[in-house]
């Protein structure tokens, strides 16, 4: 089932009219137990249009539903959006018993505005919704897509690799600058903001996260590729690469390197490492931002390098 944005909101009002005709409205709490599908998504969110709260049941539709239209929907105004529950969820229970959580109407709208600031979704973007829509993450994700005009592809949770490849083939990769579909072995953005490419046999390869790509001399540079080259040098224990603003280059690749033997730090070793990268890459991938020796790389609790901290460190560090 495919719905345009306009059709989606029309269906919400139509379903809501049906629920209202059955006496569901402000103050009611409805238990919802559905899997992922466009139809179930419409049913789920149409309940919130009536003013009722949902406790994360397949809607029972009869022949009278066909006689309902969106004009039968009576708009509900929430006088206290902060104090009125929109939905109740249960936590995953990973640290103990699952706990109930209330989400207010105000919280949902605040989340939409926050997401618009943090993530630049726009019409033409395609988002893959694989979270269960009865989880907080899945429930909050759908309105984000709808409010920004992005297309949302709803799939069942527990996506297999074969299913993932199917959706990749169906929705393709797009060129980062033009938005056009790309051919084999050309870098493109997968719709959840990773840089990928596929070969002639349809095999998919990960290149880098979109936000970690560096645009140097009008060319896309993978930070992961340069990090791998640096880490292959016998003197290097760890390395990370970020883009730093340089008028001549746009974003110049700059390396942060942890040495196996810290006392071996020297301008000569820095030059050797830069040449190590330059000898194995195209000109636009060279370390024009220089190389900084550090004792360790800043990482979060998941072990991922916090690259925005590296950019701040670069401003006050000595780069060779």
UniProtKB/TrEMBL annotation:
Domain AMP-dependent synthetase/ligase: 80-172
GO MF term (any one): CoA-ligase activity
Protein location: Peroxisome
Boundaries of every AMP-binding enzyme C-terminal domain copy: 225-304
Entry coiled-coil feature ranges: none
Name assigned to this protein: Uncharacterized protein
Domain of life assignment: Eukaryota
A Pfam match: AMP-binding_C
GO cellular component: peroxisome
């Amino acid at each position: 089932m495919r719905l345009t944005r306009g059709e989606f909101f029309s269906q919400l009002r139509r379903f809501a009219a049906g629920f209202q005709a059955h006496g569901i409205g402000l103050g009611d709490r409805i238990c919802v137990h559905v899997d992922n599908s466009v139809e179930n998504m419409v049913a789920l969110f149409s309940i919130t249009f009536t003013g009722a709260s949902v406790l994360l049941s397949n809607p029972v539709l009869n022949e009278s539903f066909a006689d309902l239209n969106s004009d039968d929907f009576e708009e509900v105004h929430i006088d206290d959006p902060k104090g009125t529950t929109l939905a109740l969820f249960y936590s995953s229970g990973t640290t103990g018993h699952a706990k109930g959580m209330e989400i207010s109407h105000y919280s949902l709208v605040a989340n939409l505005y926050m997401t618009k600031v943090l993530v630049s979704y726009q019409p033409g973007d395609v988002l893959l919704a694989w979270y269960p829509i009865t989880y907080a993450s899945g429930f909050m994700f759908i309105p984000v897509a709808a409010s920004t005009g992005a297309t949302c592809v709803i799939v069942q949770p527990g996506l297999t690799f074969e299913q993932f490849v199917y959706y990749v083939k169906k929705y393709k990769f797009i060129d980062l600058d033009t938005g056009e579909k790309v051919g084999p072995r050309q870098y493109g953005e997968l719709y959840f903001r990773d840089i990928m490419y596929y070969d002639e046999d349809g095999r998919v390869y990960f290149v880098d996260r979109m936000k970690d790509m560096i645009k140097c001399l009008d060319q896309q540079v993978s930070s992961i590729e340069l990090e791998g080259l640096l880490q292959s040098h016998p003197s290097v224990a760890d390395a990370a690469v970020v883009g730093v603003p340089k008028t001549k280059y746009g974003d110049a690749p700059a390396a942060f390197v942890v040495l196996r033997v810290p006392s071996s730090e020297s301008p000569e070793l820095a030059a050797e490492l830069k040449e190590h990268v330059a000898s194995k890459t195209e000109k636009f991938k060279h370390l024009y931002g220089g190389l900084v020796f550090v004792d360790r790389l800043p990482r979060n609790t998941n072990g991922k390098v916090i690259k925005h901290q590296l950019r701040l460190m670069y401003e006050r560090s000595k780069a060779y």
